[in-house]
Amino acid sequence: MSKIGVLGTGDVGRTLAAGLAAVGHDVMIGTRDPEKPDLADWQSGTASDVEIGTFEQAAAFGDVLVFAIGWSNVDAVIELAGEGNFDGKVLMDATNPLRFDTPGEPPVLELGHTDSAGEVIQRRLPNVRVVKAFNIIGSPYMVNPDFPDGSPDMFICGNDDDAKQTAGLLIESLGWPSPIDLGSIENARHLEAMAMVWIVHFFNTGFQGAHAIKLLRK
């Protein structure tokens, strides 16, 4: 079992933190304000095994870290967490570089074709081992995804094989099949574009979100 620091207390962060704690990992979730009443309510309800701390405390706590934050907040969270607290660790990056231009319309990618959020974070934190993961699925289905047609697939990428193995074991512990490794972190460009397929369909179906991606093999 791992010590995991989840950075971000939105739906993604809470889902992954509670799910990882439920299968036996030691988890701390990080936030700007650990005293927020809604966090206490969440902890007392579905996340009693999750500790709550600051971004800095969660980053120092985890041997594995999870980025579950909005793209516009990445730099601020790194500063608050302390760059040295990332050194040498595996960082599972669930962010998508989204820009919301028109209310009610799907967002667009801030980066693409020649760069990605995963690559930006890897350059920003050169001593961390970034693994792109969990960016192509809605938060309700991040843990024990259950669909009538079978389990969806999780795709990952990153530059460090050991880090991807660690991420793969954590992904499997949450009820997913073994993830599909696309290779180096540059392939985050494709995963972030793949996320747009999920997002556009989410908007087109009235924000239902009950869909996922699977690679079919013959």
Describe the 3D structure.
With 218 residues, the protein is an alpha/beta fold. 34% of the residues lie in helices and 17% in strands. The chain has seven helices and ten strands. An eight-stranded mixed β-sheet has the order 3-2-1-4-5-8-9-10, sandwiched between helices. α1 links the parallel β1 and β2 (26-31). The mean pLDDT is 95.
Mean pLDDT: 95
Strand order of the largest sheet: 3-2-1-4-5-8-9-10
The overall strand count is 10
The helix-strand sequence is: EHEHEHEHEEEHEEHEH
Regions with little confidence, pLDDT below 50 for 5+ residues: none
- Terminal residue distance: 35 Å
Quick synopsis:
This protein has 218 residues and is of the alpha/beta class. The protein has helices spanning 11-22, 37-45, 55-61, 74-81, 117-124, 161-173, 188-204, and strands at residues 3-7, 26-31, 50-54, 64-67, 90-93, 98-99, 108-109, 129-132, 155-158, 180-181.
Question: How are the secondary structure elements laid out?
Answer:
Blueprint: E1 3-7, H1 11-22, E2 26-31, H2 37-45, E3 50-54, H3 55-61, E4 64-67, H4 74-81, E5 90-93, E6 98-99, E7 108-109, H5 117-124, E8 129-132, E9 155-158, H6 161-173, E10 180-181, H7 188-204
Parallel strand pairs: 1-2, 1-4, 2-3, 4-5, 5-8, 9-10
Antiparallel strand pairs: 6-7, 8-9
Helix pairs in contact: 3-4
